[in-house]
Amino acid sequence: MDHQEVYVKQLWSDAATKSDANAFGQLFELYFPKLLIFALKYTRERCQAEDVVQQVFLKCWEKRNSLTAVDNIEAYLYKSIKNEVTDLLRRQVLHSKYQQQTAAQQQNLEQPRALPNHELKLRLGREEILSAAINDLSPQQKRVYQLSKERGWSYARIAQEMEVSTHTVKWHASAALQSLSHFLKNHENDLFVLIFGLFLFF
User: Fold this and answer.
1) Residue 42 is part of which domain span?
2) DSSP string across the chain
3) Boundaries of each RNA polymerase sigma-70 region domain copy (predicted)?
4) Pick the residue with more confidence: 136 or 196?
């Protein structure tokens, strides 16, 4: 086993057993270029290939505690890339629908109107849950999310501010959105209770 393999295995072990985000970030930086080239063979588009690689690393991070037995790390990552490509189109469709809904909501916001009391309560309830979800993010994920979504900064500007690579910023952004999605899904009952309560009241 050469020095590079030993180094990679140590990073993988630290990420899996110690939840070491810095070690995982180094793995991401190390493998991103070659995995991107591999993904491009399937997607033919760079932006899609980047999405695939980021999703693979995100999923590895989420199930890091169960990856301690992985022996051939590079082979595992390449296989994961192939599996992730099959899910790409489905995610793109969902993203397109989300953009359409966001555009419709923005259009409604541009037409000021007095919200009925029950709609105001429901909106405030949603904002409270979203705020809790954001506060539940790791410090780096929270910072990337706030700079990107709340201030409108580009990934390049965020990378310069945080003194990391653009790829690392993209990974934190993907991880943040995934964490927010899981948090909101786990709190669906809270929204249901709020909506049901308002329904009974009115």
Assistant:
1) 3-93
2) --HHHHHHHHHHHHHHHH--HHHHHHHHHHHHHHHHHHHHHHH-SHHHHHHHHHHHHHHHHHTGGG-TT-S-HHHHHHHHHHHHHHHHHHHHHHHHHHHHHHHHHHHHHTS--PPPHHHHHHHHHHHHHHHHHHHTS-HHHHHHHIIIIIS---HHHHHHHHTS-HHHHHHHHHHHHHHHHHHHHHTHHHHHHHHHHHHHH-
3) 27-92
4) 136
Distance from C-alpha of 90 to C-alpha of 170, rounded to nearest angstrom:
20
User: Is residue 88 assigned to a domain?
Assistant: yes
Task: Tell me if 168 sits within 8 A of 29, measured CB to CB.
Answer: yes
Q: What is the residue whose two structure tokens read 């009974």? A: 200
Q: How many domains does the chain have?
A: 2
Query: Residue 110 domain-assigned?
Result: no
Specify whether 133 is located in the same domain as 86: no
Tokens 């991070």 map to which residue?
61
Same domain, 127 and 182: yes
Token code pair at residue 23: 């070690």
- Span 98-140, pLDDT tens digits: 667 776 666 655 555 544 544 444 444 566 766 777 777 778 8
pLDDT at 86: 78
Distance from C-alpha of 182 to C-alpha of 163, rounded to nearest angstrom: 28
d(CA 64, CA 17): 8
**pLDDT digit string (tens) for 72-91?**
999 999 999 999 887 776 66
